[in-house]
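for the recovery benchmark. tokens below, seq after
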């Protein structure tokens, strides 16, 4: 029998560059335990991430399935590339060639599924975040502002193939990740950093021609009111908690 009776309980895990959060939710997206957060441990080979997820799950209510969102290019549960977990000590530190090799082509879905003994879905973290906030109508773009920039695109509730826009150059060889990531927010302050966010949004607007843009992630709430007022009514700030809540709805995404 499912842990929730007729509907499955979902272990939702949001893996970021600075922290890993998880909770268990019912089919309606209601948390059945307070979200647990631990600092992302480094160095972080795949087996250590799996072990960390299992340790967190052990202290949460029983679940029937798991959803894991993590940074990088994930295709069908296999890691094509991930930006932070290949470094020696976390974001903005040197890449470890051994970790780079360990993560490339890693079937992280199968590894988590085997360790937890649960059916598992692994997606890019922005895609899971988006699953928790989209309306399912029209073209909807999700930008998550955190350690770096996460992106996810939906059309009529259907998830588009993932694009790592965060690695594209925005100017002078600087990537979007570096341009509006947490390091730059801390260096510039919220006001100047928010202007950069506006430049990114204005630059993306003619590329995607969205019906709605959602700004999420841990730093979305740091965008100043002045900047938000200038972004337009088609831009909405959403809670970072969507990275957990989206773990349920992610199972119903078409692709």
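predicted aa per position
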């Amino acid at each position: 029998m499912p842990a929730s009776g007729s509907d499955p309980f979902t272990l939702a895990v949001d893996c970021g560059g600075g922290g890993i959060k998880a909770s268990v939710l019912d089919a309606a997206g209601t948390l059945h335990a307070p979200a647990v957060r631990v600092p992302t441990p480094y160095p972080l080979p795949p087996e250590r991430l799996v072990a960390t997820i299992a340790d967190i799950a052990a202290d949460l209510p029983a679940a029937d399935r798991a959803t894991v969102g993590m940074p990088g290019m994930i295709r069908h549960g296999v890691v094509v590339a991930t930006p932070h977990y290949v470094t020696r000590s976390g974001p903005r530190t040197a890449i470890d060639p051994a970790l780079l090799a360990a993560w490339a082509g890693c079937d992280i879905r199968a590894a988590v599924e085997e360790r937890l003994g649960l059916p598992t879905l692994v997606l890019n973290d922005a895609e899971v975040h988006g699953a928790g906030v989209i309306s399912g109508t029209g073209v909807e773009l999700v930008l998550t502002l955190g350690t770096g920039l996460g992106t996810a695109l939906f059309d009529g509730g259907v998830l588009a193939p993932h694009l790592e826009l965060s690695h594209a150059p925005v100017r002078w060889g600087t990537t979007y990740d570096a341009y509006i990531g947490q390091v730059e927010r801390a260096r510039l302050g919220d006001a100047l950093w928010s202007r950069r966010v506006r430049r990114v949004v204005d630059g993306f607007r003619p590329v995607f021609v969205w019906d709605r843009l959602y700004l999420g992630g841990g730093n979305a709430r740091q965008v100043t009111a002045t900047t938000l007022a200038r972004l337009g009514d088609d831009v909405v700030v959403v809670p970072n908690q969507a990275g957990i809540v989206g773990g349920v709805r992610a199972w119903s995404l078409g692709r």
